[in-house]
Amino acid sequence: MIESTLEWDVRIPEKKIEEKYWLNLKKRVIESGLCSHCSTCSLICPVDGIISEDREIDFPDWEERCVDCSVCVRVCPRWDYNPLSDIGDYIELVAGKSRRFRGQDGAMVTEFMASALEMGLIDRTLFVGRDEEWRTEVYHIRSVEQLFDIKLTGTKYSFANVLPEIKRAMRTSEKGIGIVGTPCMVSGIRKLQKEFSIFRKKIRLVCGLFCTENFYHHQLYAFLKEKGVDFSKLIKTDITRGKFIATMTDSEISFPVKELNSIVPHGCEVCIDFTAVESDFSVGSVGSDPGYSTVVVRTEVAKDVLEYIKQNGHVDFGKVIIEVVEKLSNLKKKRTKNIPEEYRKHMKE
Ligand SMILES: Cc1cc2nc3c(=O)[nH]c(=O)nc-3n(C[C@H](O)[C@H](O)[C@H](O)COP(=O)(O)OP(=O)(O)OC[C@H]3O[C@@H](n4cnc5c(N)ncnc54)[C@H](O)[C@@H]3O)c2cc1C
Known about the structure:
Layout: H1 21-30, H2 40-44, H3 62-65, H4 71-75, E1 92-98, H5 108-119, E2 124-130, E3 136-141, H6 162-172, E4 177-181, H7 183-195, H8 197-202, E5 203-209, H9 217-226, E6 234-240, E7 243-248, E8 252-256, H10 266-269, E9 281-284, E10 293-297, H11 300-312, E11 315-318, H12 322-333, H13 341-344
The protein binds flavin-adenine dinucleotide (FAD).
Flavin-adenine dinucleotide is lined by residues 103-110, 127-128, 136, 153-158, 160, 162, 180-182, 209-212, 214, 239, 283-286, 293.
């Protein structure tokens, strides 16, 4: 008799309403304003029906196409929301500036992913580039040389379809994939990995970006246009010390970030995870000097990459002021009041 190697360990979530699972997700997560636009549901939908574009997540023809399989609900980090916060566990905290790449701050995200490629830990990583109007575009990086393109590094303050691209990257990757994302995307990846062993096997390194909020491109674009930003000359956008700064080739426009409050998506207003506590390593700008990135190394795999970087002298190291990271983390925790009561029960005191 041939022994089966299939795993039959599937937990089918309880439906909240007697409708297809997609409608459950739509009502409980999207229409309630909890959806973070992480796009994990869009990645996993077996009929590719869930659309993740520059608007609310949707499944337009769900009545005909949804096969009611439950996977969208199983991987959604906001279905049974477990709000995470603070700095989380870590092995090492460093401030760094890459000697070979240019990025948003110290290009440490790029340095880590480039090093992971060189080490053979991964053979693919997904980076977010942009078009002329700063719409996000996802790129499959297979070689270190590609990372010298400064349109691929740096921060774009708009949702990016990184997770749906994982499926394509997995088809061609042999060694594994490195993913960079905001805290909600990292939580989506961990849910995927919990539910499906193929993602545990293929996703080898997860970088979480510090994050206060993200935006829909069309809303941020209209706002910045109104402020006088010329996108044909725009080279960098940054949120620092309470200001949004748009740097163009010949000028700079800055204004208090508070002015963007009316376009902060609902899903960000219920998020209190500033540092992406579930990542292998997190990177942000606060906590270190200008031109450096703050790096929170959390797992052994990320620690190995940091050792490689140190051995090869790829980085100048600086000092981290942890109190600044804590301050920003605590500031984001004020959003706890926006989280529905039923989910606050999960939270640590
Ligand atoms: C929406 C958003 C909000 C942020 N808010 C804060 C904050 O409040 N405080 C803070 O300290 N830091 C914040 N950051 C992180 C910060 O802007 C830098 O990304 C971080 O310091 C890393 O800099 P670096 O030079 O090491 O990265 P680089 O080496 O320049 O690499 C940047 C990486 O970010 C990825 N990326 C860019 N845009 C996106 C996007 N929209 N979605 C997913 N991945 C993307 C790129 O693919 C690349 O991998 C935010 C980042 C984002 C995307």
